[in-house]
C-alpha cells in the first residue's frame, strides 16, 4: 500500500511532483512571453533552462529506477510516466524556441487561446501527479484526468479552425508555415498531457 | 493455451475484433469520401464518430487490463496492440479532417491510390486480429502480416513519387502543403498497420 | 553476469553489433552523397539497401527474443534497444530519399554539418553497443553516451539556426520546405542516437 513506503520509494513521487512544478512554470512563462514578444529571447531562454531542469529530473528518476529493487508501482509505469512528463516540457520548449526563432512579433488570438489551454492542462497535470502519492482520494485525480481530456479536445478544435483560417486568410505563405508549426506544437503539449492523464488513470485502477 | 481461456480473458479478443471492425469501417468511409467530396463534412463527421468509438474501446481494454490478474498474453503486448490499433483510427481521422478542413475539392489519383491501400491494409489487420484468438492457423495470420508489409512498402513508394510530383507540378504552394500533409498522414496509416502486424507476428512466435 | 552467457544469448549482442555497423555505413554513405549530388540516386539506393538489411536484423532479433526463454537482459530493454537502433537507420534513409527525390543539387553548409554530426553520433553508438557485451569497462560506454548527448545538442542548435536562416534568406519557398524537412530529419537521427544512449546508460546502471 502507498502509505507504507520506504524513504527511497517516496523519492519517485517527489521527482514526479518536481517535474510537474517545472511544467506549470514553463507553461506560465510561455503565456507571459506571448504578452511580451519584444523580449521573446529572454522568455525562451528561461523556458530552455526549465527544460534542462526537466532533463535532470528525468535522469535522476531513471537512475533511481535502476537502483531500486522494489518500486512503489510498476517499473514500466514509472518509466512511461516520467518520459511523458518530460515530453510535455520538451514541447513547451519547442514552441517557445519557434516563437523566438521565427521572430513572431504579434501573437494571433488562436495562439493565445492555445497557450491558456496549455496552462490549464499543466495545472491539472500537477494536481493529478501530486495526488498520486496519496491514493485515498482517487475521485480528485479522476476529475483532473477528465478535465485534461476535455482541454485536449478543445485544443484540437482550436488547432483545426486556426489552420483552416491560416490557409484562407494569411497571405504570407512563410508566416503560414511558421504559425501552423507553432499551433501544432502547442496542441501536442496537450496531447502529451493527455498521455500523462491516461497513465495516471491506469495507476488509479491498478493500485487504488 | 488459447482454447482454455476464462470468459474475462476472452473479452480482450472481443475488444480487439471490435476496434478492427471500426478501422475497416473508417477506411471504407474515407474512400467513399474521396468520391463524394461535395459532402466531405458529412463523411469526416462520420469518421470522427468512429474514432470516438475507438477511444472508448481502448479505454475499456485498459480498464480490463488493470482489473485482470492473469491475462491471455503478455500485458505489455496487449497494451501495445490496443494502442497501435487506436493509432490507425486516429490517423484515418486526421486524414479525413484535413480533407474536409482544407476544402479539397478534387482528389488527385495518388490520394485515391493511398486510400485504396489503407482499405486493404485495414482488412488485413482485421483478418489478423480475428485469427489471434485461435492460433491453430498461424499460417493465415502470417500471410496477412506479409501482405500488410507489402502494402506499407507500396504506400511508401506512392508517397515519395507523389510528393516529388507535387514539387514539380503543383504551382499553388499552399495546395502543395495541404496535399503533402494528407499524403503523409495516409502513409502513416499503413505504418501503424505494419506496427500491428509486427506485434501480431511476435505473438504467434511466442504463443503458437 | 554477462561473462556466463550461453551461445544463444550471445547472439543478441552479435545482432546489436551488426545493426550498429550498418548505421555507421549508412551515415558515411549519406555524407559521401552530399559531396557527390550528381549521383544522389545511386547513393540513396545504397542507403535503402542498408536500411533493408537493418529491417532483417531487427526481425531476427525479435524472432530470437520470442524463442529465448532466458534473455541476457530485460526483454523490454532488448525490444526497445533494437527498435531505436532500427529507427536511426530509418531516419538516415528518409533523409537520403528526400535529398534524391527533391533533386537537391547543392548541399548547404548546414546540411553538411548535420551529416558530419550524424557520422560522429553513429560511431559513438557503435562503440557503446560493442562495449555492451563486456560490461567490465562501463566508463568507456558512459563516455560514448555523454558524447552522443553533446552531439544531439549541437545538432539541435544547428537545426534552429539553419531554419531561422532559411526563413530569412531562402527566397524560394518550395526549396525552403524541402530543406527544412531534410534538416529536421537529420536532427531526428541524432535524437534516436540519444534514445539509444539513454537505453544503454540504463543497462549499465542495472547490470554492471
Task: Tell me about this structure.
Three copies of one chain form a homotrimer. Helix content of chain A is 84%, strand content 0%. The first copy, chain A, is mainly α and 208 residues long. In chain A, helix 1 packs antiparallel against helix 2, helix 1 (7-34) runs antiparallel to helix 4 and helix 4 (109-132) runs antiparallel to helix 5. The longest helix of chain A has 35 residues, at 173-207. Mean pLDDT of chain A is 91; it is low at 1-5. Chains in contact: A-B, A-C, B-C. Chain A binds chain B through residues 76, 160, 163-164, 167, 173, 176-177, 198, 201-202, 205-206, and chain B through 62-63, 65-67, 76, 97, 101-102, 173-174, 177-178.
- Which spans of chain A have pLDDT < 50 for at least 5 consecutive residues? 1-5
Query: What's the β-strand tally of chain A?
Result: 0
* Radius of gyration of chain A, in angstroms, nearest whole number: 18 Å
Q: What oligomeric arrangement do these chains adopt? A: homotrimer
Which percent band covers the strand fraction of chain A?
under 5%
N-C termini distance of chain A: 9 Å
Largest sheet of chain A, if any? none
Q: What integer is the average pLDDT of chain A?
A: 91
Helix proportion of chain A: over 70%
Number of helical stretches of at least 4 residues of chain A? 6
Q: SSE string of chain A, helix = H, strand = E?
A: HHHHHH
